[in-house]
């Protein structure tokens, strides 16, 4: 190879190197030009920044997701409040009884001690509302009371009180009624309903009293239930109100209310008597019967209880079954609570002094 050729080759190689160097030098500024944008080589750190930003985005997403999940929890909080009666229902109790939380559902898991306390508190409340509570049958002696109680089956005490004056005026003693003409007695008892069966019962019990008990009503339960037409309910009415011996009268009102109050789930009268009697001292039984029966006739009615006017609404598991609006509930009240006459023609003085009105005689009004 000649020197010229070598020199040409070297030049060509140099030119190629020069071109490569220029490309390299030109490429370098490209890298350096990125430096000012990132200020002191942040180009390398830009990747971690992006990663950090990406890391923050999932965290924010998680927070937003958790926030969305937390939102329903706040909305669900009010859903737990239906355990308490609505404001309208609670307002119904105001003005009648102290403002208290009213349970809209029956008490669950109530202990025996709690049940006894609640039951006795209800009785105390009713005693304050009905301090004049008494048997709503007119009577002057045990004989009149036992006859009137037998006649009260399937009718009101008011109707019985309007009927018995004529009966006792004509047949004042067991001996007189035992010797009566059944047809004449039936005619007197016709307004009470089932008058033939009732005539048979009152004449029959009068004969037993005249023949077996010397014309006197016995003061023992085992003797009273032997009389025709007399069961435990009638016997306890007579024992408690004519002889002052404690007894629980389980009539339809009593059965309805003690079940609403969850004092017992029993339906048989004898079992109800035993269950309720175990909640109270024996000395309270007679007055308890009056309080419960009076409340059942005046406020806690069978078809439409006046819940909005009930003094024991805060203690009642069945609150809300009836009318809860105070004004509407007040219109449902009966007898003296509603401003109307009571059921007795000759009520006790305490009842009259409390504002009670005597019932009209049969045929009046």
Key words describing this protein structure:
365 residues, mainly alpha, 0% strand, globular
Mean pLDDT: 80
Main pleated-sheet profile = none
Helix content: 55-70%
- Structural class comes to mainly alpha
Q: Helix and strand succession?
A: HHHHHHHHHHHHHHHH
Number of helices: 16
**Overall radius of gyration:** 45 Å
- Which geometry do the CA atoms define? globular
What fraction strand? under 5%
Query: Total strand count, please?
Result: 0
How far is it from the N-terminal to the C-terminal residue, by CA? 154 Å
Regions with little confidence, pLDDT below 50 for 5+ residues: 1-106
What's the gist of this structure?
The chain has 365 residues and is mainly alpha-helical. It is built from 16 helices and no strands.
Detail the topology: elements first, then pairings.
Layout: H1 3-38, H2 43-76, H3 87-93, H4 112-129, H5 142-151, H6 157-170, H7 174-178, H8 182-189, H9 195-212, H10 221-224, H11 232-242, H12 252-260, H13 269-277, H14 285-298, H15 326-330, H16 349-353
Description:
With 365 residues, this protein is mainly α. 57% of the residues lie in helices and 0% in strands. The chain has 16 helices and no strands. It has helices at residues 3-38, 43-76, 87-93, 112-129, 142-151, 157-170, 174-178, 182-189, 195-212, 221-224, 232-242, 252-260, 269-277, 285-298, 326-330, 349-353. The relative contact order is 0.11. The model is unreliable at 1-106 (pLDDT under 50).
């Amino acid at each position: 190879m000649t020197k010229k050729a070598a020199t040409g080759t070297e030049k060509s190689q140099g030119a190629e190197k020069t071109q490569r160097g220029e490309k390299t030098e030109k490429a370098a500024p490209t890298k350096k030009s990125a430096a000012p944008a990132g200020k002191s080589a942040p180009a390398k750190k830009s990747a971690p920044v992006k990663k950090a930003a990406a890391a923050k985005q999932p965290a924010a997403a998680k927070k937003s997701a958790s926030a969305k999940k937390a939102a329903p929890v706040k909305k669900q909080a009010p859903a737990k409040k239906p355990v308490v009666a609505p404001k309208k229902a609670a307002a119904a109790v105001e003005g009648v009884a102290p403002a208290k939380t009213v349970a809209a559902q029956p008490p669950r898991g109530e202990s025996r001690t709690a049940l006894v306390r609640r039951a006795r508190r209800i009785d105390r409340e009713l005693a304050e509302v009905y301090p004049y509570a008494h048997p709503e049958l007119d009577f002057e002696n045990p004989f009149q009371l036992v006859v009137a109680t037998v006649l009260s089956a399937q009718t009101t005490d008011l109707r019985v009180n309007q009927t018995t004056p004529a009966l006792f005026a004509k047949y004042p003693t067991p001996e007189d009624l035992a010797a009566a003409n059944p047809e004449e007695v039936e005619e007197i008892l016709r307004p009470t309903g089932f008058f033939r069966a009732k005539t048979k019962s009152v004449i029959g019990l009068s004969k037993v009293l005249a023949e077996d008990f010397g014309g006197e009503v016995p003061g023992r339960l085992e003797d009273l239930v032997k009389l025709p037409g007399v069961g435990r309910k009638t016997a306890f009415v007579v024992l408690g109100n004519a002889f002052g011996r404690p007894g629980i009268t389980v009539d339809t009102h009593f059965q309805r209310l003690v079940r609403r109050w969850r004092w017992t789930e029993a339906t048989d009268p004898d079992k109800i008597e035993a269950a309720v009697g175990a909640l109270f001292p024996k000395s309270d039984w007679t007055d308890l019967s009056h309080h419960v029966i009076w409340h059942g006739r005046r406020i806690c009615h069978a078809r439409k209880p006046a819940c909005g006017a009930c003094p024991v609404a805060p203690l009642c598991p069945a609150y809300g079954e009836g009318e809860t609006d105070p004004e509407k509930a007040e219109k449902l009240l009966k007898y003296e609570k509603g401003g109307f006459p009571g059921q007795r023609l000759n009520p006790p003085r305490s009842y009259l002094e409390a504002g009670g009105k005597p019932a009209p005689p049969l045929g009046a009004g």
